[in-house]
Amino acid sequence: MTAPTPHPSTEGRTPYPVGLLLAGRRVVVVGGGQVAQRRLPALIASGAELHLISPATTPAVQAMADAGELTWHARPYRDGDLAGAWYVLVATDDPAVNTEVSAEAERERVFCSRSDDASAATAWTPASGRDAGATVAVLTGDPRHSAALRDAIVGGLRDGSLAARQYRAHGAGVALVGGGPGDPDLITVRGRRLLADADVVVTDRLAPRELLAELPEHVEVIDASKIPYGRQMAQEAINQALIEHAAAGKFVVRLKGGDPYVFGRGGEELLACAEAGIPVTVVPGISSSISVPETAGIPVTHRGLTQEFTVISGHVGPGDPRSLTNWRAVAGMSGTLVLLMAVDKIGAIAAELVEHGRPADTPVAIVQEGTTAAQRRVDATLGTVAAVVEAEGVKPPAVIVVGEVVDVLAAAFRP
Prior knowledge:
Blueprint: E1 26-30, H1 34-45, E2 49-53, H2 59-66, E3 71-73, E4 87-90, H3 95-108, E5 111-114, E6 127-131, E7 134-138, H4 143-159, E8 173-178, H5 189-196, E9 200-203, E10 220-223, H6 235-247, E11 251-256, H7 266-275, E12 280-283, H8 288-295, E13 309-313, H9 327-331, E14 336-340, H10 346-355, E15 363-368, E16 376-381, H11 385-392, E17 398-402, H12 410-413
């Protein structure tokens, strides 16, 4: 067998950056440990025909194999395993095996990345990240330096501190963006990106207000606040505003509190736009039903205590002909109840739950203005909650949690 020609030293040499299109092409990964676990998702996303060679793997890598995302050859590496490969990643903890794989790669003229010795590799894996459809890849020869630069660049693009002109591909249309529970940092990356690209923003009072200050001066902001017992913009008028501005060639973001579909009437807005022929993008948001209790020290589920939680709109109470809630069935459930828009109906709701079997001493927590600087938590029981809400002057927006989970983390959050 002819000995492979040693590759030139990488010292003082600059790597040539290139993007490999690996879809449908054979890629071999040798080693199934933590390094492979980190590198495999990007290779899977590339569409490569992945072959993993390793006697054992981490549970996460095995799950990838079980899902059919790669072919796992549960054995040690053998000479000849790289036949037909376009790229190989060596990630074992045995230097001798890594050297053998590198030698075969050199003979077969297959670019080879090594996790243990970059100087002995013919390819380096960059620290990479994605933002708005762009891939940022950094090569320095020092993985930690590369990762730090990657994080700085991608982070700057995402939060707007690193300005880059964006060429909008979606054109006119509407995006229903869930803004999260109130804290501006809890909007999704995609939601924030679309908001920065808007020509018109239709918002309400539950959406993160601080985000509006970041909008360019040319962006038109339409106030669609639905203040309880005050001035309201009819849903039909909101629908019409979305349609009219999008039909005029503008990109419209409907910025909503929480998630667009969790009592957010986003479905009605989507249907109205679809009927008018307006394209719609839906961006999920963090629902206040989960996030607000969490920030107040309340997990909506807890092992050994509850296996379910139910989210209910309390804007109409028991006995109201508009109510669609089976309160008798709700009272018979053992899990957590999360009530939204229920501050003024909590007395009637609590009485109904107690009447149908929930103990009067069931813990209740009311979290007002959750995730914001004005957040406060008030505790009670089903038997006392109506009086406590009145005495404490609790006002909406507030999330009400009913169940034993209210106190399960009390020692950690209220020392």
